[in-house]
Write a structure and sequence with these properties.
heterodimer, A: mainly alpha, Cytochrome Bc1 Complex, Chain D, domain 2, 3 domains, about 45% helix, B: alpha/beta, FAD/NAD(P)-binding domain, 2 domains, 5-stranded parallel beta sheet, 4-stranded parallel beta sheet, about 30% helix
Chain lengths: ~250, ~425
């Protein structure tokens, strides 16, 4: 039914861009949707979703070669049990949610994207949420292209690096002293909770060390703007940032 | 000379003691730290020493109240943004998770020669290192006409809890178009933006419930913290409601009469419905009893927060005179960690890292309108010295102010978890 309406009025007013923009694809979608109402089109506009994913890239990688970062990779997300990506250190909250049977489908993902903490209270995911249903649908359409089957993963799509600031490899290579990091961390835990919860201030535990180091140098170099973090990071030396990264990467709560 | 078993053991023990000079108190078991005051400074120090020494140090925390209400965020309770229960914290987790001996009693005496603390309930507690974090008391006679016996008529509400509840009830009972007067304190005092955040919160409540009411501030200071930000907020949100009389207008010449509920500002007598008197402050009384104060405050060495009067006594937070840091819960928490690291090092030989301090103070002006000021500090020979700082700007957009407020809520959750476990 919905596909028929769309064929009469192809430019729905509130949408920006078209995932299946070409006429051929549109016609194909028309028939597919007529046959199976309420499937692919409900998932929205994947091209727009790709742009929306920019807000997620700091923590999540998706596509060929995607690896776990601050958050788990998002390949084969649809149908996967929450908290189940091998090698990723999940928060207790996510471990609980997974063991209780939370699986990722359009409905659960929509709820989660709208407000992560409402679905999984205590998650470390520091994201306010996309509360517009169209944004949610578009983002899911994009992520779904990495889930339906391996063939859907575009070969040419660069893996999201998740990090946006250049740091000298020599700095990244510094092995931090976790004991020193433990001392320095007391300055962080005045605001950031040592436990894996996130309310108003992001969680910083169990980040990959490299991501932590890059983020701190971005603040130190004023490439990311936040007055408290610019001030705190501004007086941390390379060794101290490495020490903090080493400490927080291994912190058990 | 024949070395018998007794001689051998005797020299062995002496040698062991000499070879481990860092380990004090070897003669009477585990080293003992006593902390007086269970607020942002004392509870943090107790927690970090107990947590990081992993049972090697006996930690006793002496705090009279069973539920501690943080002074920070108590203005948000006045403004209706928080419940009193949101700012109340108990000591169960410090006792159960970290094995801290929490004693709910008043410390009334310190014998620095015998190294003991006397409790109001009787008994003495020995220490190897004593940490004083008693917060503030008020300077007697600072506001003529006011003393602690008048605090039920003219509350200070500058130690959170029943005083804050009383002030909130008085604001709620103001007659239509009534007058709220704040007598602001001179420098230095606890929480420099505190009085002005409080005015913002009172104005927020009155705007909703009693919009023709007025707020008058009698202020002995020329300037105050985040002044431009607060004044901008008062104009934008509470136009015409708030008036401040600085020293140019007699704000430094105030007498109160709690029975008549009048305030005399430089000869001009105002009849008020609520009078919030925040007198001049000094270190909590036990610091003076311990003999570590010089004037109103207790001077400390910046490197480890040790008292300039006694290397085995440390003073944290509001009570200390340390240099450039404002008297705030954040500062006390920051100083406590430096102190804990130094105390642990002195008692167990653990590694001592260089001191580093920081502070940020958030204030709320109205709903979702948060501002902040902060700085980092380092220890010099002379004092804790400011390195670098920032302050919110006037004219910031609503989204940034909202994010700043949400950040302050995150900070509150973070710091109270850091203090109370």
């Amino acid at each position: 039914m919905r596909a028929v309406i769309r064929s009469i009025a192809p430019a729905l007013p509130s949408r920006g861009g078209k995932f299946l923009g070409e006429k051929f694809a549109f016609a194909l979608a028309f028939f597919v949707l007529l046959a199976m109402p309420g499937t692919a089109d409900d998932l929205g506009d994947g091209k727009r979703g790709a742009a929306l994913f920019a807000k997620c890239k700091g923590c999540h990688q998706v596509g060929k070669g995607a690896e776990n970062g601050v958050g788990p990779h998002l390949n084969e997300l649809f149908g996967r049990r929450a908290g189940s990506v091998a090698g990723f250190k999940y928060s207790k909250a996510f471990q609980r949610a997974g063991s209780k049977g939370l699986e990722w489908h359009a409905d659960t993902l929509g709820t989660f994207i709208a407000n992560p903490r409402s679905l999984v209270p205590g998650t470390r995911m520091s994201f306010r949420g996309y509360d517009d249903p169209i944004d949610q649908a578009d983002l899911l359409a994009y992520l779904r292209t990495f889930s339906v089957s391996p063939a859907d993963i575009p070969e040419a799509d660069p893996t999201a690096r998740g990090i946006d600031h250049d740091v000298d490899p020599a700095i990244l290579a510094i092995a931090g002293d976790p004991e020193y990091g433990a001392y320095l961390s007391s300055e962080c835990t005045t605001c950031h909770q040592a436990e894996d919860s996130d309310a108003g201030i992001p969680s910083i535990v169990l980040w990959p060390e490299e991501v932590f180091v890059i983020a701190m140098h971005a603040y130190k170099d004023n490439a990311r703007a936040h007055p408290v973090m610019n001030m705190i990071a501004g007086r941390l030396g390379d060794e101290e940032i490495a020490a903090l990264a080493a400490y927080f990467a291994t912190l058990e709560h | 000379m024949k070395i018998d078993r007794r001689h051998f053991l005797g020299t062995g023990v002496a040698a062991a003691v000499l070879s481990a000079p860092m380990v004090q108190a070897a003669s009477h078991g585990k080293p003992k730290v006593v902390v007086i005051g269970g607020g942002a400074g004392g509870a943090t120090a107790a927690r970090y020493i107990a947590k990081d020494s992993k049972g090697e140090i006996d930690v006793t925390l002496i705090e009279p109240t069973r539920t501690y209400y943080t002074c920070f965020f108590s203005n948000l309770y006045l403004g209706g943004f928080k419940e009193l229960s949101d700012i109340g914290h108990t000591y169960g987790s410090l006792a159960s998770s970290h094995g801290i001996n929490v004693v709910h009693d008043w410390a009334v005496g310190v014998d620095r020669d015998a190294k003991t603390v006397t409790l109001a309930g009787g008994g003495t507690v020995p220490y190897d290192k004593l940490i004083l974090s008693p917060g503030i008391d008020f300077v007697e006679g600072a506001v003529p006409g006011w003393d602690v016996s008048a605090q039920n008529k003219m509350p200070h509400a500058y130690k959170a809890g029943s005083q804050t509840e009383l002030l909130k009830a008085q604001i709620g009972a103001m007659p239509e178009g009534g007058l709220f007067v704040m007598v602001a304190p001179p420098n230095p005092f606890r929480c420099p933006p505190g009085p002005y955040e409080r005015v913002s919160m009172v104005a927020h409540v009155l705007k909703e419930t009693n919009p023709t009411a007025k707020i008058l501030i009698a202020d002995p200071k020329e300037k105050f913290s985040k002044q431009g930000l607060f004044e901008e907020g008062w104009t934008n949100h509470y136009g015409g409601m708030v008036e401040r009389l600085g020293p140019d207008f007699g704000g430094d010449n105030v007498t109160v009469d709690p029975d008549a509920m009048t305030v005399d500002i430089d000869g001009s007598v105002e009849e008020a419905d609520v009078v919030n008197v925040i007198p001049a402050m000094k270190a909590g009384r036990i610091a003076e009893i311990a003999g570590v104060t010089d004037g109103n405050w207790a001077p400390v060495n910046a490197a480890d927060m040790s008292s300039k009067a006694d290397p085995d006594v440390y003073v944290l937070g509001d009570a200390s005179q340390q240099g450039d840091m404002p008297k705030s819960g954040f500062s006390a928490n920051s100083q406590a960690k430096v102190c804990a690291n130094a105390v642990r090092g002195a008692l167990t030989g653990s590694k001592v890292f260089p001191a580093r301090f920081s502070n940020t103070c958030w204030s709320l002006i109205t709903t979702d309108d948060g501002v902040k000021v902060g700085a980092t500090y380092e220890a010099t020979e002379e004092k804790i010295a400011k390195i670098d700082g920032f302050v919110s700007q006037t004219g910031e957009d609503a989204a940034l102010r909202k994010a700043t407020y949400e950040e302050s809520e995150g900070w509150y959750a973070g710091i109270t978890a850091d203090i109370f476990g």
